[in-house]
């Protein structure tokens, strides 16, 4: 392991039934050992895996908290997280991973539902009001966004409800109403109404300010994200003359952070809300050398390759499913000197590294970062270079 630090060990009362934490029952040192072993087993064919970078205090780190609301057998309103493999809610008042401010707000909302004689939404009968609450918090800014996800657009006494919530929690920055009346596992629907504040929050990461909307992708662990992104850019060792692509760029985080180390950044993002936030984030940080495109990363790479628009490096941070074959083919055709691959799924990372090594790339570095203490998930940053460079 990378350090001999000892970590405090907190116990969760619902760890055996909740679907959120797979390894919370283990001491943190054991969690790290397990993740290191997993990554080595998967990626050892590509070279040496560096020691995993731990989190100094592996609790209360999540800045995005989602609670589902239901009624129990006694008709009491409960809120919490789905039991693993079911649609049954495990009632919780606090979680060892959540920003503690968020959990307190969720408990207050549960009490307000009772006071206002409102019922949680029932997916089977399609009756009731509140389905979910999504809370996003700013680690540096302290700002808090509360998203009330309703099963209907009719929200009686909404002004009084929001007023009562703000009286209990004046620290809330903005409240948004989101309507999701579809039978779906997706939390957020398409329709949004701002009930209080601006409808977004701002936070600081690696010295830059970022706007975060309800649907924006933003890493859930700000402390480890700062470490992850700086480690990724240090590995890339840019000279300042490069043109790079930031694929799957989200709200522009790593591309904007990289902008001071390179000549030009081209960011690509499919989600329209995140794309708009990315443009806004470039403006609010007065960054002029980053250009964003609202497109599928794979399709954009193919079009760029066909136009013979070549770049020096590509930073890619794909979803858990990894990259598409089309994207990897286009990437190989463009022949960037370096690829910085940030992965939240070592299994799909292995698959994609195999494809890229067959197309003329060699893995130079692999560093796991514990972004999600208490869970089985682990992030890995890998640096690849063209063999002929």
TrEMBL record:
GO terms for molecular function: 4 iron, 4 sulfur cluster binding; rRNA (uridine-C5-)-methyltransferase activity. The active site is at residue 344. Pfam families: tRNA_U5-meth_tr. Keywords: 4Fe-4S, Iron, Iron-sulfur, Metal-binding, Methyltransferase, S-adenosyl-L-methionine, Transferase. The keyword Disulfide bond does not apply. S-adenosyl-L-methionine binds at residues 219, 248, 269, 317. InterPro entries: MeTrfase_TrmA_AS, SAM-dependent_MTases_sf, U5_MeTrfase_fam. GO terms for biological process: rRNA base methylation. The keyword Transferase applies. It comes from the Bacteria. Belongs to the class I-like SAM-binding methyltransferase superfamily. RNA M5U methyltransferase family. PANTHER family: RNA M5U METHYLTRANSFERASE, TRNA (URACIL(54)-C(5))-METHYLTRANSFERASE. This is 23S rRNA (Uracil-5-)-methyltransferase RumA. It comes from Halolactibacillus miurensis.
